[in-house]
Amino acid sequence: MSTVLARPVVGTRPNVPDRSAHAASTDTPVIIDIQDLDVFYGDFHAVADVSFSVPRNRVTALIGPSGCGKSTVLRSINRMNDLIESARVEGEILYHGVNLNDRQVDPVEVRRRIGMVFQKANPFPKSIYDNVAWGVKINGLKVNVDEHVEKCLRQAALWDEVKDKLKDSGLALSGGQQQRLCIARALAINPDIILMDEPCSALDPISTLKIEDLMRQLVADYSIIIVTHNMQQAARVSDQTVFFSLNEKRQGVLVEASPTTELFTNPRDKRTEDYITGRFG
Amino acid sequence: MSAEATQPGSVPFLSTSRQLRHRQIRGQVMRLLFLAATSVGILALVVLLWTVLDRGVPWLSWHLITNMPSRKPAEAGLNSALWGTIWVISLTAIIAFPIGVGAAIFLEEYAPKTRWTKALQVNISNLAGVPSVVYGLLGLGVFVQFMNLGRVVLAGALTMALLSLPVIIISSQEAIRAVPLSLRQAAYGVGATRWQVVRHHVLPAAFPGILTGTILAVSRAIGETAPVLVVGASAYIAHRPAGFLDGYTVLPMQIYGWTQRSQDEFKNGLAPAGIIVLLAVLLLMNSFAIILRQRLSKRSQL
User: Fold this and answer.
1) Residue among A104, A101, A78 at smallest CA distance from A192
2) How far is A115 from chain B (nearest CA, A)?
3) What is the pLDDT of residues B47-67, one digit of tens each?
């Protein structure tokens, strides 16, 4: 873990005029490049002018005080904000050169490639097996479903606990197991990126630790973006940390996006320093 | 209660103050008022059932169900009306259920929340409160006369379907709205289309509630007399409907017809017996639907 953390993730993105907060490009390829993202809920301008990039096969943590728009930014990436009628997202979210926020892009296809794990574990009221298999079936993935379900449950470090009761309800599992089932469900559709919206906020410390370990393993095959309220968690699991705050107009703004070790040891912005040292938020 | 059990004054802290005693008395009075309100409803039901059973049970017999109506009380039966009710109600449910649930799905899952859909929503709620005789007149104008169906089962069922639709739509909407957002998000999150989310998650979770609303609406339709009177259920008909384009009568019509006869046997014997049969049909249909609902909700809990 420390070796991953120690990896230098520095440099300036060439195509963007120098705005210190945006200087978060890395030595690894960029998988998501967010440019000038604004989100409105009705008349309320919730997130203003956010730009950062997400490195491939790394964990990127979004942190910041409550209401600063980090979950909103996360949900913009896989077009979940489309489900909120009053929400309007402006700006570019580039993924393999395609702007995911383009109305021409089908949100269903976006979500197929960018999976999501939610704050509260929300397994389907179906069997453990069907929880994982459903996404495979509806997307018509050409895989052996039994083998694929096993593979995903193994990847989510849940297989040994559930292999004898795959037909039991997913809701009968413990909270931590349910959340790992949700991770297995997200993995099942072979996504590129996994978004996690405070995945451990409802879990006990041991379950939290399991999920954090899991994230470190998954990052070999996936790119992960996690929203967390827990700064220690961000420090433990992430390679890059993006700090959001509220400006004087109560809009969520990006303050600093830096390699995690750098952000926590040597923050560039005064607001970041205040937040991570507990003077604010 | 426990405050009274301790000696007043012996423990200063526990002695009930005047002000608290007043509040508690007020609470007791309200409790009694609510109990009285409940009792009125139950009492009315008991009196009703007792009157009906007392007069009707002696007239219950197998040939009441198997015989056709007759001028002689001893031979009169309600076979044609029973079959008419079964025909009309089955057809009503078949017509109203898919249309009502479809409308509810559209309004909840697809329609944007614009001024138009809000206006539509208010209108549907108002339709649920429109007197049933108005539906009868609508049915008479549209189905019997304009579509020239005549006084047949189908016209009656279409009218009853219109009558049931608002209640089915509103209760289905509520059931659909009660499906947690987290479930929808989970389904959308794995790349499901809107229809896949609705088909595999929203509908199964909402189905028990949808069924309850449908039961309520159809139960109301079983007992309705006014609309079928207007769209032309016959007062006297001595054969079962041969199909949905045949003439018919229904149980409430038959009962009403009997209460209008001068002989006491019809008024105070056969009519109450007919009511018992109507209630039995109602209970039978409801229990069937409840069993179905419980089976389905058990399956969706897995």
Assistant:
1) A78
2) 6
3) 999 999 998 888 888 888 888
